[in-house]
User: Which sequence fits this backbone?
């Protein structure tokens, strides 16, 4: 796995290793975990070292038709999902700061006109939202009432914003970021992501950056921000009725 903190490794290890091992080899593991939440009753994690782990509930094991000791591979597993009509949502990349990069981040001074936003910035933030497309707002999921919000300004205008919300039962904070179309390519997104990540680290949280595999711009931003790819994570689709 990537050189990230034990907090992150332990968080991801738990659901994929807690339970009965259905199948395991050097690169592929399937575990039956009866304690998974309903919206995560099937999960797949492929780490950056190309190892794939699957965890699923006993009900889904029965639905898909898996048995202890049967020969499996990722390809066979996905074929069985398809045959059973079980759909996955679509994988996200997972990015985190390595321990080395975190040490750099916590000591640096963030450049530009970047600051934390509060409820007092409601008018400024509303103007920012009004200048963004509905699609960008939905994709970014940046909200002023989230746990932490930072903005980057140009000539006193809010042109980029990022917000975070902690995950339940984990010292991990998920972030979203949005830059207005006319101000992209100027480093605003990189600065606000590093600023909010520095804030999260000071509060004891691991910043988490997620994006869809086909979102090249978001992937490029993650790398430019200094984040390290941890892996790809997928869960059962809400459209699956099982």
Assistant:
């Amino acid at each position: 796995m990537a050189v990230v903190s034990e907090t992150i490794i332990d968080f991801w290890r738990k659901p994929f290793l807690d339970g009965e091992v259905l199948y395991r080899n050097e690169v592929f593991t399937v575990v039956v975990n009866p304690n998974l939440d309903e919206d995560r009753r099937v999960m797949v994690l492929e780490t950056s070292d190309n190892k794939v782990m699957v965890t699923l509930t006993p009900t889904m094991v029965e639905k898909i038709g898996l048995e202890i000791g049967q020969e499996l591979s990722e390809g066979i597993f996905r074929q069985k999902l398809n045959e059973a009509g079980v759909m996955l949502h679509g994988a996200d990349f997972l990015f985190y700061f390595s321990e080395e990069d975190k040490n750099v981040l916590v000591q640096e001074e963030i450049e530009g006109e970047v600051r934390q936003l509060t409820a007092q910035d409601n008018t400024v933030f509303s103007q920012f939202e009004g200048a963004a497309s509905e699609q960008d707002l939905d994709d970014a999921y940046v909200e002023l009432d989230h746990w932490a919000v930072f903005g980057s300004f140009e000539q006193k205008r809010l042109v980029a914003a990022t917000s975070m919300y902690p995950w339940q039962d984990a010292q991990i904070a998920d972030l979203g970021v949005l830059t207005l179309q006319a101000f992209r390519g100027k480093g605003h997104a990189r600065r606000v992501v590093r600023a909010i990540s520095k804030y999260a680290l000071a509060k004891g949280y691991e910043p988490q950056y997620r994006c869809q595999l086909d979102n090249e711009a978001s992937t490029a931003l993650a790398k430019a921000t200094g984040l390290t790819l941890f892996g790809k994570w997928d869960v059962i689709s809400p459209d699956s009725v099982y």
The chain has two domains: 6-93, 98-226.
